[in-house]
Amino acid sequence: MTIPQYFPFMHGVYDVKAGITALNKDLGNGAIDRQAFQIDEQFDVYHAAKRAACEHREHHVLRSGFDAPIESAIASWMQARLLAEYPARDWSLSSIDFPLDELAMRVQADLAVLQLDEQGCNRLTYLNVCMPSGWPPEDKIGKPFDAVHAPVPHIDPINAKHDSIAKLMVNATRGAVRFAWTITSDSALNHHPLRDVTAKHPSPLPDHPAGEPLLRVERQVIWGFPDQQAALFLIRTYLYPLDSLQPPVRAALAQSVSGMSEASLRYKNMDRGLILERLA
C-alpha cells in the first residue's frame, strides 16, 4: 500500500484556521482519502509507539467524566467502520470494558472525544494520544476547545468561535477531515514533552539523520455523534523526509515557512534558516 501524500500548505501560506472539509473529498490519493482509518505496512511501528507510550498511561490515556454508554456507542461505530474498510481483519473485542482503549491499540491513529454538556459547553472527555506532537495530553483532558488551543499563536479568531465549531463537529455525521503540519528534526512518533529523549523511540523513519528537518503532518478525521452530543477525533501522523518531496511541494513548503511569524516559529521550535537551506 502506498503511503498517502498530504501537503496542506500547497497554497504557500502558513495559516491558523479550522480548515475542515468533507471526508468524501478526493485529495489525490484515491479511495483511501475517503476512509476514516488508514492502516498500512507501517502498522507495527505505530503499534510499538503506542505500547511504549502506554508504559506511562497517566500521560497518554485519560478520561474525565466519560460515560460508558457514550464510549460504547463510539466503539460500536468504530467496529462497524473498521469492518467496512478492512473486512479481512477481526474487529471483535476481547472485553466490553474500556472498548476504546482496546480499539485504539489496533489502529494507527490517536483518539480524542469532545462532548457538549446540557448548556452546550464543550470539553475533552477522552484522550488516547500516544503520538502527540509536542503537547502533553494530561494538561488538556477535561478542558474546552479554546483552552486546549490557547497556546497556539494567532488562534484567537478560531477560539472566538469555539462553541459553534464544537457543534459543527458533533453534527459531522458523514465525517470531516482537517490537517495540521510542522517541521521537526525528531523522527519519533511520540513527541510528548516529558518523554525520555535519550531513549530510542519507535519511528517509521528509523534511519533519518538526527537533527535533519522533516515534515510532520497530522490527518485529523472528525466524526459526529449528535445523539450522544459527542465528536470523535482520529489523529493519524505522517512523516516525510524533505528530500522525498517533489519540487512543487518543496517550493510551497519553503514559501509557507518564509511567511511564518516569529511567534509561530518559536511555538513549533522551527529553525527557518536551516529549513529553507534544506529546501533550496
Report on the architecture of this protein.
With 280 residues, this protein is an alpha+beta fold. Helix content is 29%, strand content 19%. A seven-stranded antiparallel beta sheet has the order 1-5-6-7-3-4-2. α7 (247-258) runs antiparallel to α9 (272-279). The longest helix is centred in the first third of the chain and has 18 residues, at 68-85. The model has no long low-confidence stretch (mean pLDDT 96).
Break the fold down into its secondary structure elements and pairings.
Elements: E1 21-22, H1 43-53, E2 61-63, H2 68-85, H3 99-104, E3 109-116, E4 122-128, H4 145-149, H5 156-159, H6 162-170, E5 176-184, E6 214-225, E7 230-241, H7 247-258, H8 262-268, H9 272-279
Antiparallel strand pairs: 1-5, 2-4, 3-4, 3-7, 5-6, 6-7
Q: Segments where pLDDT lies below 50 for 5+ residues?
A: none
Q: Kindly estimate the percentage of residues that lie in beta strands according to DSSP.
A: 15-25%
Order of helices and strands: EHEHHEEHHHEEEHHH
* Approximate shape: globular
Query: Quick one: CATH superfamily?
Result: PAS domain
Task: Supply Rg.
Answer: 18 Å
Distance between the termini: 30 Å
How many helical stretches? 9
CATH class: Alpha Beta
- Helical content (DSSP H or I, runs of 4+): 25-40%
Tell me the CATH architecture. Answer: 2-Layer Sandwich
Query: Which secondary-structure class do the elements indicate?
Result: alpha+beta
Mean pLDDT: 96
Question: How many β strands by DSSP?
Answer: 7
Please tell me the total number of domains.
1
Could you name the CATH topology? Answer: Beta-Lactamase
